[in-house]
Amino acid sequence: MSDNTEEIRYQVNTPISVEQFVQLLTETSLGARRPLEDRACMEAMLKHADLLITAWSGEKLVGVARSVTDFHYCCYLSDLAVSEAAQHKGIGKALIAQTCRQLQPNCKLILLAAPLAQEYYPKLGFDKHPSAWTIISSSFS
């Protein structure tokens, strides 16, 4: 960000381009765990998200919260990314708050923490769940 005092603007379900999404992810530790080179996958990630909250500093995308949700029972916050240049300013917390505002009151927000964010989520009030499991769809028989 060119101006540290510039106000951050949040938008709900405003479309962003694949290029903007990929650029932001490259500015975060999350980029190493996303298929940035697979344009079709990145396009589908944006197209099929149920909820997309973005954070902007001027015309620059500095944060995103991308979720898959039914809005009532559960919301999987798949990507929470804030540009390293814009971190430690409350943007991640605000993206989570904006996400929660779009959900019904008892909807559970679920996420898998990136290795570098393990200490971040408890500070926001998240409870650690002892049994999360993943599998690649093509490996299931």
TrEMBL record:
<protein>
    <submittedName>
        <fullName>Acetyltransferase (GNAT) family protein</fullName>
    </submittedName>
</protein>
<feature type="domain" description="N-acetyltransferase">
    <location>
        <begin position="8"/>
        <end position="141"/>
    </location>
</feature>
<keyword id="KW-0808">Transferase</keyword>
<dbReference type="InterPro" id="IPR016181">
    <property type="entry name" value="Acyl_CoA_acyltransferase"/>
</dbReference>
<dbReference type="InterPro" id="IPR053144">
    <property type="entry name" value="Acetyltransferase_Butenolide"/>
</dbReference>
<dbReference type="GO" id="GO:0016747">
    <property type="term" value="F:acyltransferase activity, transferring groups other than amino-acyl groups"/>
</dbReference>
<dbReference type="Pfam" id="PF13673">
    <property type="entry name" value="Acetyltransf_10"/>
</dbReference>
<dbReference type="InterPro" id="IPR000182">
    <property type="entry name" value="GNAT_dom"/>
</dbReference>
